[in-house]
Prior knowledge:
heterodimer
Amino acid sequence: MKNQPEPLETLTEIRSLMERSSRFISLSGLSGVFAGIFALMGTAVVAIRYHLSFTMEDYYSRATYSSGVPNGEFFVFLFSVALLVLVASLAVCIFFTTRRARKHNLPIWDRTAQRVVWNMFIPLSAGGVFCLVLLDHGIFTLVAPATLLFYGLALLNTSKYTYPDLRYLALSEISLGLLGCFVVGYGLFFWAIGFGVLHIFYGTRMYQKYER
Amino acid sequence: MNWVNHLNKAFESRIRLGIMSVLLVNDWVEFTELKEMLQVTDGNLASHLTALEKLAYVQVRKQFIGKKPNTSYAVSEIGKEAFNEHLNALEKLIKARE
């Protein structure tokens, strides 16, 4: 029995290997914090440009003229800002995640990373198409809550393959999305909370828990 | 002290323990992925995999992706049972020492 490896050490090693091979653990909480900051900046830019107050229903009246025809210029601006926020957030996410993977000498684009991306991609694409359908039918008020709802579902789906903490963020996004469906007209405000505040809150928590 | 007998000789090597741990939580894993995860050489990994294969603890699937041969491994039912028994024995060993 003397040449047996320490049983406790062996069990710990087994556990870590199981975790490392089945979950993507390089995801950095900092990317959530920065995504949140970008989202807050984006919503602020839109609000300032159109003199909207976050808590008023201006958002909806901006979206359409009094005749009910969609305001094209507003949508183009909104979409451009959203796209910019998305690209910046993704870039920061990739940056912090690869940095963390390098630090721990872990592969960056392995099967766990692919699973994370794939599991995000499917619900998000469905959500994207659904939002286009809403726009096509002229149901502008439900677009913002729908993005939050589908984003939450995508996160919930992905939480199985990375840190389980993502589940809490997912549930918060889903609840917020559903609430937004009932209380319509505050799309920009819900975006600021969902993509801004929640990301910063949970990103900070994950950073403190795993990266300190 | 009969739980000592449950410690499986087949799992005495760290590499074999590693192989089993990875296969237990993943469906089919390619040779190269296993190599990367366990940080071992080709020959070393191959010889341990062959040993586990002979015991019927792992299943092997060989196929061609284009012209490249591609080998994947999965844990078998017997392998799963044997590994679980080994883990239980390890746990008891720890408890007995406390």
